Each structure stands twice: as C-alpha cells, then as structure tokens.
Amino acid sequence: MSVTVDGDKSESVPSRIRRVLRGPRAEKVPALVGTACAFIGLIDIAAGVFPRFRASRMHALAEVLPGTLGPLSAALSLGVGVLLLLLAHGLKRHKRRAWRAAVILLPVGAVAQFVYRHSVIGVLFSLVLLALLLAHRGEFAALPDPRSRWKALANFVLMGAGSIALGLVIVSAHPGRVVGSPGLSDRLEHVLYGLFGVEGPVGYRGGVDWTVGYSLGALGLLTAITTIYLAFRPEHPVARLTGDDEARLRALLDKHGGRDSLGHFALRRDKGVVFSPSGKAAVCYRVVSGVMLASGDPIGDVEAWPGAIERFMDEAKAHSWTPAVMGCSETGGEVWTRETGLDALELGDEAVVDVADFSLTGRAMRNVRQMVKRIERNGYQTRVRRVRDLSDGELERIRRAAADWRGTDTERGFSMALGRIGDPADGDAVIATAHKADDDSDGSAYGDLKAIIHFVPWGTDGMSLELMRRDRSADPGMNELLIVAALQASPKLGIERVSLNFAMFRSALARGEKLGAGPVLRVWRGLLVFLSRWFQIESLYKFNAKFQPRWEPRFVVYRNARDLPRIGFAAMQAEGFVNLAPPRPFRRRSAAKARPCAHITPARGEHEMRAA
C-alpha cells in the first residue's frame, strides 16, 4: 500500500525512517558502546582509587618509570574514568561531541592504566572500545540538545557532591598508611582542602599522600573545568516560533483549523515547527529532556501530513531525540503509526459539547441548573465576548487577574494551553467573565471581576477551552456558571461546538465504577483516584461529565514501551507539573510588566474547583 506525500508517490512507511527506528546498528552499536564506556570508566576510577585493584605483572617496567609518575597516573586514571561515565549517556544517544571526547579520553585512560596499574587487560579494554568507536563513527552524528546556563549550576552541585563522596572513598582507601586515627570530620576536611589543591589534616606514610593529593586535586579540577565549560560554551538555540512560522501556521489553520480542536494551540510561541516539503502541513513540537514532544494532530492538509511527519522524524534523528506525540486524535494516531512504525496508546478522552444539543432542562442537568441559578440569585452577571470586542483597559485587567489568580507559582500548560490572553492576533478568541458589584468592588484591583474563562478558535464554528481562573473569594461554581454562559451565548457568536477539558484515563474511571467491574479494573481505578489528589484526574472527569458531552479519544504515540516513563516525565515537565528550571523569585511580576500580552497560562484542565 502507498500514499500520496505532497503530490508524490512514496512508501507508506518511509524506508529511511524505518531504518532509523528499526535498524540494529542504529540502536545496538551506540547502546553497546555507551555501556562499555561506562564499564571502562568504572575500571579507571577503581584503578585510581584502589592501587591494588589488580596485582601488577609488569614490575620490570615499573622500576624504570619516574617515581612521581605513579601518583600522577592515578589521578589521571580517576579523572578519565569520571569523564567516561559522564559521556556514556551521550554515546547511547549517538551524540557527536560525546564520540569526539571519548576518542580523546580512551587513549589517555589506557596510558594511565598501563603506567599506574601495569594492567594489560585494562589497556586492551580501552583500545578495543576505541577501535569500535572509530569503526562505527558514522553512527554518532547527532547534533547537540538545546542548552541553558542553568546546567552549569546543576553540574557544579552534582559534580561537587560526587567529588566529595568519591574523595571520602579515596581518603579511606589506604587504612594501613594513615598516620593516627582521624575521624570523619578530619577526613571530610581533608577532602574539601584537597579539592582545592591544599594539604589537609590527614597524614599518610610511604608516599601515599601524593597519590591522595593528586586524586583529590584531579576531582576538584574536573568539577571546575566542566562547570566553566557549561557556563561559557555557545548555547544551542531552543526552538521558538518565528513571525514567519506563525503566519504560515495561521494560513493553514484558516483552511484546515476546523479538523482538530487542539490546532490553535500550535501557535504557542515557545514551540518549534517543521513543515512538509510543500508547505501544506506542519508539526509543532517542544524538546524536553531529550524528548521531542508534538501535541495534537499535524496542522494542514491531511494528504500532506506524511511529509511533515517525515521531517519531524528526521529532526528527531538528527539530534537523537526520542519522538513522541501527546493528545493526537484517532485519525492522527493512525497516520503517525502507519507512516513511522510507532505505536499508539489511548491516553484519555476530550469532552466536546454540541451547542445545538445543550440544554439545562432534564434530570441529568439538575445539579448544574441549580448551581447556576443559585449563583445568579447571589448577584453575579456574565459577559461573553470576542477578544477583539474588549477594550485595551479591560484586557489588561483580565490579564493581571488571570496572573494573580493562578493557583500555583509554576506556569502550567503545553498541549492544551496557548500561553497568552488578548493578543491582537487572537481576536477571534472568546472570553467569558463573571461580575458581581458589591461594597468591596471599588477597592479591588479588578473591580467587579470575579472569574474568567478563555476559549481559542476551533475553525470557524467551534471554540476550545484554554483557561479557567477565578477569585478565591468568589462563590463556588464560577466555572460551571461561565461554561453555561458561553454555551448559551455560542449561537450568537456562530459557535456550533465547544471543546472542554481533557480527561485522562476517562474510560477506566467510567468502567471501574460500574456494577460488575472486574478486580483488575477496580484496582486500576483506585490507583487513579489516589493519584487524583495531585493531578486532578477524577475531578476533571466528573467536572466534564456534568455537561453531558460526547467523548473523543486522544492518544499518545511512542517508539517503544521502555520510552513511556521518559515521555511521561518529559510531558509533566512541559505541562509544568515538574519544574527543573532555576528559581526566579520575581518572575511573575516582571513578566507582567515586560510582556503584557504573553502570560503563560495553565493547561485548560488545571482549574480550581470547590465543592458546591
């Protein structure tokens, strides 16, 4: 079977991508080399720390070597071993710079093994791995990952802690040569002094103090050099959506934006994009912890999707990133799996309400109807408008309120968040606001504004929920009130369908609570309920179900099962649930002043609900 890719006939599974993903050399050789590199690094470290790690068999050669070469070689072996351990992960990911560094370090480690331990086996291990690296140098061509200066500080902390721990082992590895009985505090002080090249309080007999001093100095120098390198090396640019990219994406959305409710979220300006050769389709992505995350379906003409997907996979191959797609539709999952050989797993369901079928009447809507009427009796009013119909002053007030009402210090959202409110380019977006005039309204920074929800366009006749925020002092049920108001106002705005929150593992929660559910399903549901304490899994499902939506399944696309934990962790980082960025105490206030139209907003599922 073949498909048309940008007007040309090609295989349904491009041979180049299949070779990248399935080829044994592409996977096995770097993994083997990386494991061997870590093993040799451990041998080098052991050789530097324990001089009798292996008995010498070349005493004759050792007798003619200078006496000071032994301690220096021990430090050299230790430093090379630590560096090889650091490079092992890069080699497994096909990184070109890791290959170059390993080709330089392996001969140095072999010389240190020969001079200090006189170990022929240790030398052979290093030389065999060097030959393997040279023979398969074409497999190590991946470009660097995006970088930040924060990695220099992280390296200093981690390397510093590791150097102190390894230094304590070095100081304690010669019990028969220690002068006196130094305690742990003396040994720790000796390590700290030694990392800076200064003699510490612990004394040794028989020249061991030179070996320990050189080894500690090598660890300190290694920590300093790697930190300085990371701090001053040129940064590989992080993908950003340029003005031209955004214009091209908007043109594609004008033609094909009605197909996917997540299409407009591709316009987040912290994403990168790859276009098909014809420019008729595109895939937007972000790289997090070595995972190349795409969200939703490709943008544009379905017939051109394979070309954009192939470009995406080529980019992942060039940097040795792990490809993954979060939240694609069933059609999108079928195309991704067919064109790349990847696998798909159902992630959850999207709640979609058809405006023509929505009504507050009936027993099923009783709770929502009563809640809305009670809030309206308390004096709340709602307004639903396009962004272009709001004044600049009111937009600024809404942006400030949304920033200050955020429930967490960390900005959240990626796959289902736009990252801004009130941008002039998003004039078709819809904002619903709740207002209540009371005695304290005049003194409030936001007047009578009590709650906000923000929708982005979904083609010409739909909208997709992006943001929910409310004043903590407002009555419970603000989100329900505004969603009902938006649905009731949709016909006047020409809206026929509304996408609400995404509910992860919705089918498992729904089936697990039914009569006759099996024990495995009940245990799985119990685990999801337990995790809901932190991730709002069950609460989002129940909140969405109030509006009697139809459920559209969404999928995660991945290469193999062992990548799923890594993809999940990267997705949590992208969504803001795990934050590894450096602390910035005044980030929110400075961002509000510097970029009033670019507030990063949480994923549309992150809302603050109270029990009615």
Automatic annotation (TrEMBL):
Q: Which UniProt keywords apply?
A: Cell membrane, Membrane, Transmembrane, Transmembrane helix
**Which parts of the sequence belong to the Lysyl-tRNA synthetase N-terminal transmembrane region domain?**
26-229
The family database entries (InterPro entries) matched by this protein are listed as: LPG_synthase_C, PG_lysyltransferase, tRNA-synt_2_TM
The UniProt entry lists membrane topology as: Multi-pass membrane protein
Q: Provide the Phosphatidylglycerol lysyltransferase C-terminal domain boundaries.
A: 250-558
Transmembrane segment boundaries: 29-50, 70-91, 98-116, 122-140, 152-173, 212-232
Look up keyword Oxidoreductase and say if it applies: no
**What's a Pfam family in this record?**
LPG_synthase_C
Name the Gene Ontology biological process terms: phospholipid homeostasis
- GO CC terms, sorted: plasma membrane
Biological classification of the source: Bacteria, Bacillati, Actinomycetota, Actinomycetes, Kitasatosporales
Protein name in the entry: DUF2156 domain-containing protein
Q: From which source organism is this entry? A: Streptomyces ficellus
Q: Where is this region: Disordered?
A: 589-612
List where in the cell it is found.
Answer: Cell membrane
A single Gene Ontology MF term assigned here is: aminoacyltransferase activity
